[in-house]
Amino acid sequence: MVWARGLRKAYPSTGPGQRGDVEAVRGIDLDVRPGESFGFLGPNGAGKSSTMRMIAAVSPPSGGELSILGLDPATHGPEIRARLGVCPQEDTLDLELNIRENLLVYASYFGIRRTEAASRADELLEFVQLTEKAKAKVVDLSGGMKRRLTIARSLINNPDVLLLDEPTTGLDPQARHLLWDRLFRLKQRGVTLVLTTHYMDEAEQLCDRLVVMDGGAIVAQGSPLELIREHSTREVAELRFGVGEHEALAERVADLADRVEVLPDRLLLYTADGEETLARVHERGLDPVAVLVRRSTLEDVFLRLTGRTLVD
């Protein structure tokens, strides 16, 4: 569905005193298979959105090879875009129209007949659980409802691939879980999903495979479970001490774990058995203000690979 080799994207530098181009995507390789959910995980500025714009055939690559649905976006851009659904990071809904009218107007851009558009709109409103709000103005919707409407709009042309750029940013937990459920149902229908996110739990929930991006490059790829097994331990013991104490205390516990990460507000001890590690910490006379034992996540993978957290 998506194939890339050595894909690059560079932008002219605009800052004072800067020369040359700024390379946002630095020669990445991609393979997205039919029917899978493929993710780009990384912080803001990692190159995720630039990659998505190239896949959406709205931003030409600066180098490398790219094929979307077996077609070259440089020569078949309109044909590719007609078969894609795009859910942008920012909602671009028409605030003056009601929910149903937003779908009907968008359908007209694809040349869909009004009777068919009406049928698809009703089906999609039911799918995203907005049927009862069909005549409501967009301006009156909650953030979660707007995101669900944006996804419904992106499905109006029955796309082969749905592109989602940070689909749940800014949503409360309940709205996020409802959106995850809708996306999972789409995957079950055979729609190929390509999404970007900086939420590790979202990536673990939605993605069959993903790539971890940092500084425009891919630093790791695989399934969430494969990445955690390869780059982290089974458990993590989090220790909070007094302000400014973590750097010095890291040396006193370094031999108790496979590795120790020092964050501004805590120590992370990577170990196979977090409870046993905590017990050994207490045996050394250390008394953390707070402790937590948890399983490793994709954020731990990212911290291992890049030296910083996903929200940096």
Automatic annotation (TrEMBL):
Subcellular location: Cell membrane
SMART domains to which the protein is assigned, alphabetical: AAA
Pfam families (alphabetical): ABC_tran (PF00005)
PROSITE patterns (UniProt xref): ABC_TRANSPORTER_1, ABC_TRANSPORTER_2
One MF term in the entry's GO annotations: ATP hydrolysis activity
GO annotation, cellular component aspect: plasma membrane
Residues in the signal sequence: none
GO biological process, any: response to antibiotic
Domain ABC transporter: 2-240
Membrane topology: Peripheral membrane protein
Keywords, ordered alphabetically: Antibiotic resistance, ATP-binding, Nucleotide-binding, Transport
Family: Belongs to the ABC transporter superfamily.
The protein's name: ABC transporter ATP-binding protein
